[in-house]
Amino acid sequence: MRRVHSTEVRNAVLQKLSQRGVRLEDIAEIVYEMQAPYNPSLQMEVCLESVRAVLEKRELQHAILVGIELDMLAEQRLLSEPLQTIVASDEGLFGCDETLALGSVLGYGSIGVTTFGHLDKHKIGIIKRLDTKIGNGVHTFLDDLVASIAASASSRIAHKHRDWEEEIGPPFELIAGDTEKPTISRVFEETESSVVPLSAEENAS
Amino acid sequence: MRRVHSTEVRNAVLQKLSQRGVRLEDIAEIVYEMQAPYNPSLQMEVCLESVRAVLEKRELQHAILVGIELDMLAEQRLLSEPLQTIVASDEGLFGCDETLALGSVLGYGSIGVTTFGHLDKHKIGIIKRLDTKIGNGVHTFLDDLVASIAASASSRIAHKHRDWEEEIGPPFELIAGDTEKPTISRVFEETESSVVPLSAEENAS
Amino acid sequence: MRRVHSTEVRNAVLQKLSQRGVRLEDIAEIVYEMQAPYNPSLQMEVCLESVRAVLEKRELQHAILVGIELDMLAEQRLLSEPLQTIVASDEGLFGCDETLALGSVLGYGSIGVTTFGHLDKHKIGIIKRLDTKIGNGVHTFLDDLVASIAASASSRIAHKHRDWEEEIGPPFELIAGDTEKPTISRVFEETESSVVPLSAEENAS
Amino acid sequence: MRRVHSTEVRNAVLQKLSQRGVRLEDIAEIVYEMQAPYNPSLQMEVCLESVRAVLEKRELQHAILVGIELDMLAEQRLLSEPLQTIVASDEGLFGCDETLALGSVLGYGSIGVTTFGHLDKHKIGIIKRLDTKIGNGVHTFLDDLVASIAASASSRIAHKHRDWEEEIGPPFELIAGDTEKPTISRVFEETESSVVPLSAEENAS
């Protein structure tokens, strides 16, 4: 049996998200809303970059493919009963959508999990739009997956921000205006540019 | 080496919670706030009973003993560095408190996890009071443990409520005022004193 | 949209397992093999009863329906690519099967998780037979789900066994042959028909 | 209150492990035993490098500090009862050690979790030596933490190995002996040298 190359998996993920009406910019907006209070100089492009980075992980890519597949099969009424009704109605006590989504967020530490719980409860932005059942669209899995992507990307920024603070040293150095110290954008550039697309580092760690 | 009887463990848990200023009624209030929107006839005593029930679990009892021990050792400055400073300051990226608390909530399904995430972010009631650092009190672990107890007890009620709805049958029967159908308080009594097949106990816990 | 009654869900689970060649007795055999070393007087019927009990849980029931559905769709080549190839070939780094199965075992404490890890690696009995790819049968999700059921049922017995030991008191009482003390089968009967404070049901599930 | 720099945390982790008799080489040996069957050309130095890499993660560092602290306090009989007896005797149903250790392994995907379960059951090498209770040494938490480090490092190698296989292309190219293709050691060097010590990438992802 042929083996699926990771490039094929990644491309399928990006295509499916787009096909289901989710733009990476929509997810980045949620990340911004989550992290801006702790990080006033945060820029939207940093959020978008973080969304792209977490989407390189195999665990999350597979979860997205499985979840969207089940949503689409339910839309076409191709699941067997009683699963068809449970998924199509986004049954309150059905938890496989959250279990699948939680699996990938666990790798981003406790901030990831609590942010996921928050987003799952207070569906904001694109998550809200997906959760609102209109017409025949089924997004039972997708809204949780988007919450998972956003929570992971948020947690990743929180950790990077701390690393940046440590690199520039204690606050008084900021006041002193030491221009030789790295700026946050420089730190991000450095760690980003050294990470090759779909690198082992991104996937395994 | 002597073996600790489960009665001794349970009594220690109740005593420690009380000693640290947490009354079971405080936790029941959070449960009420979480579940009342989905269950308008919910009574406070049902919430309190649910808190007591989740506190019977070994996994949670052990987590409470470990967490409170670490809080108290940090208060007395008996931990070694750098752990002493990390715990005493409730370091933002320290996640062992949430990991320990999450361990016991995972058994209550996905509602438990999302409620935990919500409570961890929007600290309400007693959780808020514990989180507010006053004087030398350290509650780094305890606030997450209380969130875990409340989230577990909430999820347990959500599952029991569904079981009750199924027992009384579809809504029109309620309108018909079938007085032979079980009331919710009767269902709770019955499931407490005996486990029927597909009981709430089995589902929720 | 109609609401699915829990009886319908449970019946579908039992029917699907049977249809896919998994008898509850096969799972009970794995449970026996896991627990007999710690509990020499363990009887097969206790293992079977424990398998039945964990199968009453909503979280696990839903996971079984989702997993078997994906296996069967892959057999019929009805999944879209690249998911079709990934599931049909039980790709080594595909982890959604384990994530889904792990979700329900987490509720049974740490013994459940380590037993699941062990079974997932040393596939024994029916798990081995499912994992061996013969003909067109796809059991990518089912082998992990069976490991999850067996691990949960094993952990549940370990907790119940401890409760029983505590009820009969310290070992010397056994030597004294106190025939008034409860036997293990009596304890199981009692805890099934009624939940006593600190009962096995509460602890193990 | 002063803030603990991540360098201080990392140094404390390495010092504590050494102080408790765990050499990174001991852990690398377990990793080798786990991964060699899937990767015949695996070298011990790659395993050691992987152990070092997972030890850069904040989540795991914090878990190690907490776990060793509790072990040492139990050795000195400084925990309050009944926790003192539970930890000192490594009580069979005590699960906080596994919960804490599992928290950090979850970030490495499903291979990490099943390897952890396997190691927790079939304690090999240094884990076996720690688990064997000799004299007054308490290693209730440490043996699970070492299993977690080894499982994480193993899973990381499995993912990297796949990336390497994809980079060199399909098997027939290997036969063709295309010397321009990257070798596995070259792939590791490249991804390693681009990761700065304690980088954000390592910590957050």
Write the layout of secondary structure elements.
The structure is a homotetramer of 205-residue chains.
Chain A: H1 6-19, H2 24-35, H3 44-54, H4 58-75, H5 83-88, H6 96-105, H7 109-121, H8 126-131, H9 142-168, H10 171-175, H11 184-193, H12 200-204
How would you describe this protein?
Four copies of one chain form a homotetramer. Chain A has helices spanning 6-19, 24-35, 44-54, 58-75, 83-88, 96-105, 109-121, 126-131, 142-168, 171-175, 184-193, 200-204. Residues 170-205 of chain A have low confidence and may be disordered. Chain A has one domain (6-204): PgpA-like (YutG-like), CATH 1.10.3760. In chain A, helix 2 crosses helix 3 and helix 4 (58-75) packs antiparallel against helix 6 (96-105). With 205 residues, the first copy, chain A, is an all-alpha fold. In chain A, 67% of the residues lie in helices and 0% in strands. Chain A has twelve helices and no strands. Chains A and C meet through helix 1, helix 4, helix 5 and helix 6 of A and helix 1, helix 4, helix 5 and helix 6 of C. Chains A, B, C, D: It comes from Paenibacillus aurantius.
Key phrases:
homotetramer, 205 residues, mainly alpha, YutG-like, 12 helices, 67% helix, 0% strand, disordered C terminus
